[in-house]
Amino acid sequence: MVTYHAAMDEVFKALADETRRSLLDELFRRDGQSLTSLEQRLPMTRFGVMKHLKVLEEAGLVVTRKQGREKLHFLNPVPIRLVHDRWVSKYAEPWAAGLSEIKSRLEETMEKVFEIYIKTTPERLWEAITDPEIRTKYNFGSRVESDWTVGARIINVHPGAPDGPLGEGEILEVDPPRRLVHTLRALWGDDVKAEGFSRVSWDIEPVGDSCCLTVTHDQLREGANNQLYGGWPMILSGLKTYLETGELLTTPGSLMYQGEGAS
């Protein structure tokens, strides 16, 4: 199994090349691009672009998803967030937090894909996603409540929000401990309420003594408010930290909304 330090080595190796940084810049500008689209923007062969994309995928900086006959490429900010949490956040949180607020556009809707490897079992990871008390430890102090059956309501509540839930949705698919899909509507402000419902899919894949967790947040309006998806890198970093060490993230951003709910 790849260790944390080895994984960081792969990230820095991938970022060291100017062409690979250019590819990430392209995905930062417009996420979910095909190989054909990306090769048109770089002065090299299709094979050369494929080689660089493979290095980025191996480092976890790019994830892919099939759409029809095409394979779309998405920038995955989670490894960058982990580097940020280790070395940057103590000194430059306001500046660095903007790195995780990545904007992307597709023709009609936006789709955000986040991937992270966690040394745990599928059962324990599933519990951490669905247990209300565990969720408070990495989800900004809020808890998610549901009976986790198809058609059931799911709500996000916080002790510091007396006016009602911060979010709501409906369970669409449940396959423990492998896959969970639900809709999501943010309720913490009029601006995000106006965005309506989107969809969140949690996919757990065992990899040796660890799990690959892929969170896909899609059916977002083109140009949707980035409050809806900008917190995912920090939430997933907090989930990894908690399951692997039993500790909580203490970066300013991760503590921002916790209050009494993080106890």
Descriptive overview:
It is a single chain. By secondary structure, the protein is α+β, with helices and mostly antiparallel strands. It folds into 2 domains: 4-75, Winged helix-like DNA-binding domain superfamily/Winged helix DNA-binding domain (Arc Repressor Mutant, subunit A, Orthogonal Bundle), CATH 1.10.10.10; 106-262, Alpha-D-Glucose-1,6-Bisphosphate, Chain A, domain 4 (2-Layer Sandwich), CATH 3.30.530. It contains 10 helices and 10 strands. It has helices at residues 4-15, 18-29, 35-39, 46-58, 78-96, 122-130, 132-135, 190-193, 232-245, 252-255; strands spanning 33-34, 62-67, 70-75, 109-118, 143-145, 153-157, 167-175, 179-186, 198-207, 210-221. It has a 7-stranded antiparallel sheet with strand order 4-10-9-8-7-6-5. α5 packs across α9 (232-245). Residues 98-107 have low confidence and may be disordered.
Mean pLDDT: 84
Q: Which architecture of the largest domain does the CATH hierarchy give at level 2?
A: 2-Layer Sandwich
Instruction: Please tell me how large the radius of gyration is.
Output: 18 Å
Number of helices: 10
- CATH fold-level assignment of the largest domain: Alpha-D-Glucose-1,6-Bisphosphate, Chain A, domain 4
CATH class of the largest domain: Alpha Beta
CATH superfamily of the largest domain: START domain
Proportion of residues in helical segments = 25-40%
Strand content: 25-35%
Order of neighbouring strands in the sheet with most strands: 4-10-9-8-7-6-5
Number of domains: 2
Major beta sheet summary: 7 strands, antiparallel
